[in-house]
Design a protein that fits this description.
Low-confidence stretches of chain A: 1-15
Order of helices and strands of chain A: HEEEHEEHEHHHHEHEHEEHH
Number of helices of chain A: 11
Number of domains of chain B: 2
Oligomer: heterodimer
CATH architecture of the largest domain in chain B: Orthogonal Bundle
Strand order of the largest sheet of chain B: 2-1-4-3
Strand content of chain A: 15-25%
Strand content of chain B: under 5%
Helix content of chain B: 55-70%
């Protein structure tokens, strides 16, 4: 698609970095509603990009299409130079994209530790035969899975460790559920992490802490992060770049300061001034 | 608070009346009227007819006590309510008797005969006998109401003692058999007369149980505390010891039971084997498979065709051991063939499609097209037993079959456990919880489900292979849909997703009630088996959907909502409290 190459060149991005995710002309409609009406965007390796927009702008649909929950109606999604359109969502996860959900969708009846262990599925290989025969390979792998799960949970401080390991996820508080969901996504060993409203329902202290954590994910773990967020303070503190969606199209892009003074953005959020309309 | 809630009382009373009418109308009362339980006065028919009355009398005033409210005082009104409830039931029953006596409804309700009226009125005829029909229920209802007057522990012990006396009387066959094997046959002859327990023996057993319950109070808690000790090393050691104890018990058990009871237990083993396989499919992977019998049939027919000397097509006469790998392979092939097209469906759709496939397999075995290989309706006969060393395991020696079935069950239990505690088992749980999210977390849902389907098919095929050698002959009619359903009921009643639960379900349903064609301990109930199965299933779905011995996770799933609400209540301040706790471990 030559047209896409043109749009991509004009996009701002961190100089010298490699494009991790390139999306061109992405379309998705549900019945008559155009959730995504030709979105182009690019995420570079090592970036933290925020996607904002009013309710119904198509932010979550964007995540759902990228992670293969819904097939796109048109357009292309390239991840590390490879098209991932039409792949099963498990294959997309295996390729290195992990996500969390807006309405936290944990495996509530599994324990905290199991939630993180099960997410390592696509990075491990022991099958039914090895499980039944309890081979040394399986034992070693099981031990590794557990160690790794504990290590990931320790990333969130003392909240999800110790006696928490064996508690069902449904016994967790709302903030801890959000943390566990991020831990679960991390366990798939992604390169690109998509976080859907990670601080929704958190108090200011927890929000500030999670903001730091998102930075840590990039700085210490080398992840590229795309965040959907409504909390503008978080968006300001965390993002290298902000993309604004409205009615399924990208209406602005740039640094937080650029975007927050952009007229189209203000209009999308607050409506058109009365004397004009 | 009113001393007696009349509406509630009458509701329970008429419920009891309905139970009695139903018991008569389906013929349960008449069928067991002459099967004495307690010599010389109490018959099984009477127990079945009247068991609900004390319960109704008790429930008439058994209001739940709300927290913070004062518990209602106990007294005469409890007894009166019981009496009224019993009376209401009795009056309903009386009206029923009069109607049956006056109008001839036998064309429709074949069980409502003159003999029934005679039995109900003890031959006193209608006007006189009505005193009995109304009076006895009223007395029993009152007895139920009186239970309120004793303290809760006493009540529990009383009911326990009563239950045990009835169980011993009902399972006379088992108890006298075990006593004979222990060379205590004389005791058996003493306490049992005409298959019924002597009244004094019943009293003695009740007293003994009450006494033991008194002594054992708190003992269970201590044993539990010991078995599930917090110390991991001790817990492991304990579980090894208890596994060894169970194993030793299983080895000794067939020696205690005669060949008849061993036959029953061998059937239990067969269904347990299939139950464990279905448990992987339904309980762990969450796929409702109603065509499970197909794999059982494939296993049985493969072994039959390869080993029988009069096999319709082949002349191989292989040994069972040689045929077994082929049977397993064929089960896998069948699992893949059935599984691949249907696995993407969810829930109800999967159930219907598998049900269809199960029937297709049976009809294929029945068809003229495959009759040259599988013998059509004539089936495959003269299947030899399983050679084990110098001995041979075959249906005519149930003790050998029992040991062999135990062995296979242990293998199946190990497979279930090992898979549950592995990467694959976790993936199954995740899929059951939320298929979409499981896929988004990198689990290849189709492959994981197909794995479950194949493992289930292998275990069913193993069951089929055992069935072929045990029964020695097979016909398409041995593989009806009913087999699938009964295996499913075993899993549901026992406790989905839990290995000991499935074992409990198999012992209770197959051992006590009997399988689709196999007699159980209560062979007398054969005619009413499906009625009892159905009633049990409805009861379980209403009251204990997680099964008798549920897995922790299953009961969490089914009762999860309440639990999570409680969890929120416990921690209103979110993380603050959590931070303060030590993070050891």
């Amino acid at each position: 698609m030559t047209a896409r190459a043109g749009t991509l060149r004009s996009m701002p991005g961190r100089r010298g970095a490699e494009a991790m995710l390139e999306i061109g002309g992405l379309h998705k409609s549900f019945g008559g509603v155009h959730a995504l009406a030709g979105v182009d965007l690019r995420v570079d390796e090592g970036e933290i990009v925020s996607v904002i927009g009013p309710n119904g702008a198509g932010k979550t649909s964007f995540f759902n299409v990228v992670t293969g929950l819904y097939p796109p109606d048109g357009g292309d999604i390239m991840f590390e130079g490879r098209s991932i359109v039409g792949l099963e969502s498990s294959e997309i996860t295996e390729a290195g994209i992990a996500r969390t959900f807006q309405n936290v969708r944990l495996f509530l009846n599994m324990t905290v530790l199991e939630n993180v262990m099960v997410a390592q599925h696509c990075r491990t290989r022991a099958g039914a035969f090895r499980a039944v025969l309890r081979t040394p390979f399986l034992r070693r792998e099981e031990a590794e899975i557990e160690t790794r799960a504990k290590e990931i949970l320790a990333f969130f401080g003392t909240r999800l460790v110790g006696y928490r390991f064996d508690q069902p996820a449904l016994s967790l508080s709302y903030a801890n559920r959000r943390r566990l969901e991020i831990a679960r996504a991390m366990a798939t060993r992604p390169k690109l992490l998509l976080l859907d409203e990670p601080v929704a329902g958190m108090n200011p202290r927890e929000t500030a802490e999670l903001t730091g954590l998102i930075r840590k994910l990039r700085d210490e773990r080398g992840l590229t992060v795309v965040v959907i967020e409504h909390d503008m303070r978080v968006v300001r503190d965390v993002s290298d770049r902000v993309i604004v969606l409205d009615h399924g199209t990208k209406i602005a892009e740039g640094s937080y300061d650029e975007v927050s003074s952009n007229e189209a953005v203000i209009e999308a959020y607050l409506g058109r001034p009365a004397e004009v309309g | 608070m009113t001393p007696m809630d009349l509406r509630r009382t009458l509701r329970w009373g008429s419920l009891a009346g309905a139970v009695m009418v139903f018991t008569c109308a389906v013929g349960l009362f008449e069928a067991f009227e002459d099967r004495l339980l307690v010599y010389p006065f109490l018959s099984l028919g009477h127990v079945l007819l009247l068991w609900f009355l004390p319960l109704a009398g008790y429930q008439a005033t058994n209001e739940p006590v709300l927290e913070g409210m004062e518990a209602p005082s106990k007294g005469l009104h409890n007894v009166m309510a019981g009496l009224v409830a019993g009376l209401a039931g009795g009056v309903l029953m009386g009206v029923f008797t009069v109607v049956v006596d006056a109008a001839d409804v036998r064309d429709v309700f074949v069980r409502l005969s003159v003999r029934l009226v005679d039995l109900l009125t003890h031959g006193w005829g209608v006007p006189g006998g009505l005193v009995l029909i109304v009076g006895v229920p009223a007395m029993l209802g009152m007895a139920g109401g009186m239970l309120h007057l004793v303290s809760a522990p006493v009540r529990r012990r009383l009911i326990l003692a009563l239950e045990w006396a009835l169980v011993v009387a009902l399972l006379e066959q088992v108890f006298s058999q075990v006593l004979r094997q222990l060379r205590l046959g004389a005791v058996g002859n003493l306490i049992f007369t005409r298959r019924a327990l002597e009244w004094w023996a019943a009293l003695a057993i009740a007293a003994l149980v009450a006494l033991l319950a008194e002594r054992a109070r708190g003992g269970m808690g201590r044993i539990k505390g010991y078995l599930f000790a917090a110390d991991a090393v001790r817990r492991t050691r304990n579980s090894i010891w208890s596994a060894l104890a169970v194993l030793a018990f299983l080895v000794i058990l067939p020696q205690l039971l005669g060949s008849l009871l061993s036959e029953l237990l061998a059937n239990v083993g067969l269904f347990l084997l299939m139950g464990l396989g279905l448990n992987i499919v339904v309980g762990l992977a969450g796929m409702l498979d109603l065509g499970y019998v197909a794999f059982f049939a494939v296993g049985a027919y493969t072994v039959g065709v390869l080993t029988s000397p009069i096999s319709p097509r082949f002349d191989l006469e292989w040994s069972w051991w040689a045929a077994l790998p082929v049977a397993i392979l064929m089960s896998v092939v069948a699992g893949v063939l059935v599984g691949t097209p249907v696995i993407r469906m969810r829930g109800d759709y999967l159930a219907i499609v598998t049900l269809g496939f199960g029937e297709i397999v049976r009809i294929l075995f029945l068809s003229d097209w495959l009759a040259p290989v599988f013998g059509g309706a004539q089936g495959v006969r003269n299947v030899p037993g399983i050679p084990v060393g110098v001995a041979e395991v075959r249906g005519s020696q149930p003790v050998g079959v029992l040991y062999f079935a135990f062995g296979l069950v242990l293998v199946a239990a190990w497979v279930s456990w090992a898979l549950q505690e592995s990467r694959l088992g976790r993936a199954w749980t995740a899929i059951r919880e939320d298929e979409t999210v499981a896929a988004a977390m990198g689990i290849n849902v189709v492959r994981a489900k197909l794995n479950a389907f194949i493992v289930g098919a292998i275990l069913a095929g193993l069951g089929g292979a055992l069935f072929a050698a045990k029964v020695g002959s097979m016909f398409p009619s041995s593989f009806e849909l009913l087999v699938s359903i009964i295996v499913l009921v075993v899993v549901i009643v026992g406790g989905m997703g839990n290995i000991p639960g499935v074992a409990v379900g198999a012992v209770l349903l197959i051992g006590v009630l009997g399988g689709p064609t196999q007699p159980g301990l209560l062979a007398e109930f054969a005619e009413f088996k499906l009625l009892i199965y159905g009633a049990l299933l409805v009861f379980m779905m209403l009251r204990k959907p997680e099964g008798l011995l549920p897995s922790v996770r299953r009961s969490r799933e089914l009762r999860g909502e309440e639990l999570s609400q409680d969890a929120w209540l416990d921690r209103p301040s979110g993380d603050v409290e959590v931070d303060a706790r030590p993070a050891g471990g």
